[in-house]
Amino acid sequence: MTTAARQQTVTEDKVRDAERARDELRDALKAAGVQLPSLGLDAASCAGPAPLALIDLGRCHVATARALAAALRSNVGEQQGAAR
Questions:
Q1: How many structural domains comprise the chain?
Q2: pLDDT per position in the chain (84 positions), as tens?
Q3: pTM value?
Q4: Residue 67: which domain range?
Q5: N or C: which end of the chain has fewer CB within 10 A?
């Protein structure tokens, strides 16, 4: 396998991994009753010879931000209760 082919494989693996992470996050948020309308991959970070493959959480309106905060607080409370 050539260096270019190896680099392409690494890039594709990183992007696929980021897609899986995005899907996992979307599913977890959905289960908590939260939908981030702009959740996706950051296209610029997925390009080039050494992609970072970042997940862009995007923008949301105030109600969604509050729902996300409530879901996170609820989860933290559950984890703290389980640790006692």
A1: 1
A2: 787 777 778 788 999 999 999 999 999 999 988 999 999 999 999 888 788 999 999 999 999 999 999 999 987 666 666 655
A3: 0.77
A4: 3-83
A5: C
